[in-house]
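Key result, reporting period 2: structure in, sequence out.
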């Protein structure tokens, strides 16, 4: 059935939940009642650490970011279709940290994050400039390179960039040579300081997509498919089960244990079971409850405790750390 324009406007009024491999999104999340979500340098740093954890667990990539006092912007790519799980994990983890630190309760963020699908070329380049100039527009600094909590200095090469920050897609639009691309990107952003540059978000179609006509038509078809296709939850579940199966197989082979041993209900759990739960927590979007249920009906707190124990062992025991790397290599 052909959908009407009014139908799509109604769909757009709801939070976007279109998830597919390689999707690129502009994500914005604001503090509840416009209150600060970052009160100091340690808060900004902790948020970036949580972003790194999301990258390790969900494979998410960040093309550009800027963290402001009461909100943040991310240009986020999902190599796997797991936007909802990764953003929920990110915001929840940071909220838990913030509430503990400042002895508060309740929501930190104002409702659900805002999400826009983005076409990479040429909108990614324009949107990255818009993000990097945010602190200048807010009157915090006069030059974007003077702001510490954005990806701009990493783009200029004056600050090392983490593994989760991907600059090649943007810089590669300017030059194949890294040094030349950085020089041109600096000039490109500097031009934005002169004013008269159009806000790329003003070109968003129906509040959901930033791109050309073809991109919008493809997005529209995806929306229609996701609204109608009852098989999509089943496909997602099959993908999650496949990832879990790969982890179990790798742990079984490395430690020489059976599936029954890994998933037995006995307490305490086998050391290999803790490794399997740790990798499942790290490498899939299964919830703590789901992981605990699969591994012998354990309480979700036991899964969380196993994750912490493995992390501590990795820090304290180099040999054990190497073991985990070898198991992860089998997954890769």
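The corresponding designed sequence is given below.
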């Amino acid at each position: 059935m052909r959908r009407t324009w009014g139908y799509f406007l109604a769909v757009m009024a709801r939070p976007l939940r279109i998830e597919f491999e390689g999707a690129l999104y502009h994500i914005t999340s604001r503090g509840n009642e416009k209150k600060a979500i970052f009160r100091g340098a340690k808060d900004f740093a902790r948020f970036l650490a949580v972003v790194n954890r999301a990258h390790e667990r969900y494979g998410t990539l960040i093309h550009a970011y800027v963290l402001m006092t009461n909100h943040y912007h991310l240009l986020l790519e999902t190599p796997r279709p797991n936007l909802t799980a990764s953003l929920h994990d990110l915001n929840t983890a940071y909220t838990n940290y913030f509430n503990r630190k400042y002895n508060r309760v309740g929501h930190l963020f104002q409702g659900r994050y805002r999400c826009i699908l983005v076409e990479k070329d040429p909108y990614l380049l324009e949107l990255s400039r818009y993000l990097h100039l945010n602190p200048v527009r807010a009157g915090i600094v006069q030059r974007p390179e003077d702001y510490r909590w954005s990806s701009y200095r990493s783009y200029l090469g004056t600050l090392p960039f983490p593994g989760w920050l991907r600059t090649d897609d943007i810089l590669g639009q300017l030059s194949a040579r890294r040094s030349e691309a950085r020089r041109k990107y600096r000039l490109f952003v500097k031009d934005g300081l002169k004013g008269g540059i159009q806000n790329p978000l003003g070109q968003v179609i129906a509040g959901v997509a930033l791109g050309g006509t073809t991109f919008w038509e493809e997005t529209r078809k995806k929306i229609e498919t996701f609204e109608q296709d009852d098989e999509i939850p089943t496909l997602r579940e099959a993908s999650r089960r496949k990832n879990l199966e790969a982890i179990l197989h790798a742990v079984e082979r490395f430690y020489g244990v059976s599936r029954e041993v890994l998933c037995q209900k006995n307490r305490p759990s086998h050391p290999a079971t803790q490794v399997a739960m740790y990798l499942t927590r790290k490498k899939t979007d299964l919830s703590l409850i789901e992981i605990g249920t699969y591994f012998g009906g354990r309480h979700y707190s036991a899964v969380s405790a196993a994750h912490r124990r493995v992390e501590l062992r990795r820090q304290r025991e180099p040999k054990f750390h190497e073991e985990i790397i070898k198991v992860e290599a089998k997954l890769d």
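The longest strand covers residues 23-30. The mean pLDDT is 84. This case is discussed further under Risks and Mitigation.
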